[in-house]
Specification:
It holds the Pfam family Beta-barrel_CAF17_C. By secondary structure, the chain is of the alpha+beta class. It has two domains: 158 residues, 2-Layer Sandwich (Gyrase A, domain 2), CATH 3.30.1360.120; 68 residues, Elongation Factor Tu (Ef-tu), domain 3, CATH 2.40.30. It is built from six helices and 15 strands.
């Protein structure tokens, strides 16, 4: 079994009798589908439908960290996320706390379920191979991982799962662009939430031309992160996170890649040729996928 403490993850807790309904009116997830031992992937969007913050929503039972819901989110955004949620509080009976200084997150994959009864254990809902997460006392969490965050990052990249701040910019990407619709991060049959109209329109019209997809460099060495992807002589996207062996993720215009391949033009980044790879969770076509 592999495990790693994830120092870049934080935890926001929402408790109170109105907590479930409060979150349901704001997030992309149907909170009725969130339960103890049944975490969900979700996001808080801008009114224009762009991702402010994405996270895993886990419910803790009454004896685990005081119950309520834990949002496993980027630590750098945890404070801002708590403040933004508080803006919507109004008269809702909820308490919103940024616990990132006291709680840490450990990832477990490639083996049995992690944890020893302490903290809150929940499966990473984005992909089965991502395994489990454990939120518990941060000091203890730092001592639990036998692997490194870099190993976890490579595992995530090989599965084709994007991460905000590395593969897309918060406040600038739509859920479809970040593959949230493919990874169970958007419930299209739930009630209203912030940004729903734009996201639903994209889904119903099938107009998502920009996607994050895995890439493989023919040379075995990846271009620098942030390098521009070129489809022939047209800009088609940017390289996000990369890993050893010439693999990475890229946010690209699929239509421009398709046009270039049809014309026999090369697809490159940093002067290196690359191929797109279709991840096993994708339900969309990936031009020239290996």
């Amino acid at each position: 079994m592999s495990s790693a403490f994830l120092p870049d993850r934080g935890v926001v807790r929402i408790t109170g009798e109105d907590a479930r309904g409060f979150l349901d009116g704001l997030l992309t997830v149907d909170m009725d589908k969130v339960g103890v031992d049944r975490a969900r992937f979700a996001a808080l969007l801008t009114p224009q439908g762009k991702i402010l913050c994405d996270f895993i929503v886990a419910e803790a039972d009454g004896e685990q960290r005081g119950g309520g819901f834990l949002l496993d989110c980027p630590r750098a955004l945890a404070g801002d996320l708590a403040r933004r949620l508080a803006m919507y509080k109004l008269r809702a009976k909820v308490t919103i706390e940024d616990l990132s200084d006291t709680l840490g997150v450990v990832a477990f994959w490639d083996g049995e379920r992690g944890g020893d009864g302490d903290g809150v254990v929940y499966a990473d809902p984005r992909h089965p191979a991502l395994g489990d997460r454990l939120a518990l006392d941060r000091t203890r969490a730092e001592s639990l991982g036998v692997g490194t965050a870099a190993e976890w990052r490579e595992h995530r990249i090989r599965l084709g799962v994007p991460q905000g701040g590395q593969d897309f910019a918060y406040g600038d990407a739509f859920p479809h662009e970040a593959d949230m619709d493919q990874l169970g991060g958007v419930d299209f049959d739930k009630g209203c939430y912030v940004g729903q109209e734009v996201v639903s329109r994209t889904q119903h019209r099938g107009t998502a031309r920009t996607r994050i997809v895995p890439v493989r460099f023919d040379s075995g060495f990846a271009a620098e992160e942030g390098s521009e992807v070129m489809a022939g002589d047209k800009a088609a996207g940017r390289i996000g996170s990369t890993a050893p062996g010439g693999i990475g993720l890229a946010l690209v215009r699929l239509d421009r890649i398709e046009d270039a391949l049809a014309a026999g033009a090369p697809v490159t980044a940093g002067g290196l040729s690359l191929r797109l790879v279709k991840p096993d969770f994708a339900r969309f076509d990936v031009p020239g996928a290996a």
